[in-house]
Amino acid sequence: MTAAPPDNSIQPSPPSATDAGLPAPLTSTEITPAQSTSALDATFAPQDLATMAPSWQLTPIPGTIPPTSTATDPGWYVTADAMFLHLNQGRNQGLVYDLINLAPVGPPAIVRYGPVVSTNDVSNNVFEAVPRLTLGYRDTDGSSIEATYFGRNDWAGSTAIASNPAYHPPIIYLQTPDTFVADRITTSLSSTVHSFEVNVFEPTLMASQFEFLGGLRFFRLTDQFQLQSHAVINSNFDQSRYSVQTTNDLYGVQLGVRWKQAFNRFSIVAIGKTGIYANDAAAQQQLAYSYNASPVIVRDQTASRPTFSTIQEVGLNGTYQLAGYCTIRAGYNLFVVTGAARATDQIDFSSNPFPSLNSHGTAVLHGPSAGIEFRF
Predict the structure, then answer these.
(1) For a surface tag, which of 48, 232, 333, 343 has the fewest beta carbons within 10 Å of its beta carbon?
(2) Do residues 88 and 334 lie in contact, with contact meaning Cβ atoms separated by under 8 Å?
């Protein structure tokens, strides 16, 4: 058997580090103690060392994970507030007066004294809870759109008064068309408010804390005033009922600005809006008498006309971010509606009133609020 001839073909050698663009490896004979530091420095640049992190920093420490969402992140959000608002009731007007006898001896000298009941006595002067809901969406460019509703049906107040037997004569005088004399009066005044609006918010280029807003709003305000009197005259039971009801339906546009300043998790948010609205205002008056259960309607008038109204809104809130998706808030709110028909502004006790509508009234709502916001 003969041995195989040797393979004299030339085998390609592996590429050197220099050919691959990499620094040539340093052998132990090439590195002297004096050169070792400089060689390592050449291999690892200082900027490379700055970007390297120890392995323990790659594991998040519990409690230091940043929020997954902030108020400026894109996405949907919903806000629920409980506002505690006070609503004024227009002008103050006398309703019920006392009759007193200034000459108990001799010919009577009966004069009117008072008033003992006015519209301010009937108004509800407490702060009522009013829910407010907002659904919004923020885009990636910072713009957002929001739909907001708030309202309440029963802003109601009432009062009653009866004659004082110590008076001579012991009766109450009511300034109705026939100057009705009664011995007991009950009055009530109630209102409803409903507001729905859609606004678009656009951030400003000059200051990131400011957003301009523009939108549409529908606002409804109604009032109902009632006054009932009772009397027994010559063994006959008499009673009357006088009522005034007003309705304001406002449709219009509004502009405004929203400002926000953040301090870590705490923020201050202020908003101001103003708008002009077409108001479909109407008022109805009715006066009815019942004489021994025989009712007679002596007045039934309705007046309506389109007019212009305005709404100004101001709000100041403080917010605190509990988590990336949850924020609590509290603040104060003010709403001013001008050019409104209020029930107490329509009261007319004259004998032959002309159907008319007073739409120069003002409704002011103000009070604190508290709520929560969720982002998803």
Answers:
(1) 48
(2) no
